[in-house]
Write a structure and sequence with these properties.
alpha+beta; six-stranded mixed beta sheet; 2 helices; 24% helix
């Protein structure tokens, strides 16, 4: 069974996540673009991901893989350090790359995969 959750970003062509069996595929998430601060935006992004995961009865502890997209590779260490605040039981696998974003004030985005066995 495939379950597509409503958009989280106002774009009806993008589900916030898609649940396929025990796997949850998270769409791109971002946040905090009102402030040009990588740590602030990372925290807001994680809060957005937490909200999406909660909508399907999952948490960040269920996340097994994250793709982190940064505008500036020089933000890597500060961005990576924020992971420690959200993953107390060990971090998921992560890939980090740089890219430009549609939003001019966006410094980071994340997507990922979570695993939550069906009850």
């Amino acid at each position: 069974m495939i379950k597509r959750m409503p958009t989280h970003c106002g774009d009806e062509t993008c589900s916030s996540c898609v649940v396929v069996g025990d796997h949850i595929y998270l769409a791109h998430h971002a946040g905090g673009q009102d402030k040009e601060d990588i740590e602030y935006q990372m925290r807001k992004t994680f809060e957005s991901m937490k909200k999406t995961l909660a909508s399907v009865d999952a948490t960040l502890d269920d996340v097994v893989q994250i793709n982190l997209y940064l505008r500036d590779i020089n933000d890597f260490r500060l961005a990576a350090d924020v992971f420690k605040e959200y993953f107390k039981n060990g971090a998921p696998a992560r890939m980090t790359t740089t890219t430009e974003f549609v939003g001019q004030t966006c410094l980071c985005q994340m997507d990922g995969i979570a695993y939550k066995p069906l009850r």
